[in-house]
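Please fill in the sequence for the structure shown.

STRUCTURE ENCODING:
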């Protein structure tokens, strides 16, 4: 990513950084090579699974790796705006390119997700990491998805415990590292709700599973996980 990406966001492709020429967010080459995910998203450890089901529209391969880096370090909402319609459609299994849905249109999947009792909850960052980065990328995703599906965003889930970075850890080490990292504030906002938990990448699922465990203990009725990509 060059300094120009920060000065003039929207000029270069979020996937490969080449100059955009007529398309939005991604160049035509990257758009043609999007790694759509056809596999179910499941927990990759022997732990008990606390979420009901999980969805991810993309595999964590190029050019989506580049888009996720833009989301994490680009300091703009461009990548979230690109990913959000794909994530929203992953819940429903409909491609946004074939069947665009106007913003705010009521959304249900077999009656599971009702506007009155469904909320979007972004996976929180510890405050030290958030202040280093300047923002939480999962909140950007949640806000963009909220504009499409009409579900409110709740920031009731917080992360009081600072954990080590998961890179190079086994599934079991990740689970141990993340245990008790999360807490809920303002529990009445989420009690008896269906939660769609929003994260950027699903690797082993240890982080979202620990979030789900914490939310269930706080009175949430049911939890679905929605990430942009799965490894
Ligand atoms: Zn590109």
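FILLED IN BY: designer on duty
SEQUENCE:
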């Amino acid at each position: 990513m060059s300094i120009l990406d920060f000065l003039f966001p929207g000029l270069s492709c979020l996937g490969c950084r080449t100059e955009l020429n007529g398309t939005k967010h991604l160049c035509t080459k990257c758009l043609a090579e999007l790694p759509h995910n056809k596999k179910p998203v499941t927990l990759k450890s022997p732990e008990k699974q606390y979420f009901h089901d999980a969805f991810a529209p993309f595999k964590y391969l190029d050019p989506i790796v580049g888009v996720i880096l833009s989301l994490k370090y680009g300091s703009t909402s461009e990548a979230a705006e690109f990913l959000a319609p794909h994530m929203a459609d992953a819940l429903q299994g409909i491609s946004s390119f074939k069947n665009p849905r106007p913003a705010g249109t009521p959304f249900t999947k077999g009656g599971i997700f009702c506007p009155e009792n469904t909320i979007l909850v972004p996976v929180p960052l510890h405050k030290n990491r958030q202040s280093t980065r300047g923002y939480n990328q999962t909140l950007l995703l949640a806000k963009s998805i909220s504009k499409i599906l009409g579900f409110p965003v709740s920031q009731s889930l917080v992360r009081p415990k600072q954990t080590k970075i998961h890179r190079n850890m086994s599934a079991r080490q990740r689970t141990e590292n993340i245990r008790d990292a999360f807490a809920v504030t303002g529990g009445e906002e989420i009690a008896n709700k269906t939660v769609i938990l929003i994260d950027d990448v699903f690797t082993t699922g240890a982080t979202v599973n620990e979030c789900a465990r914490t939310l269930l203990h706080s009175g949430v009725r049911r939890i679905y996980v929605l990430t942009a990509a799965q490894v």
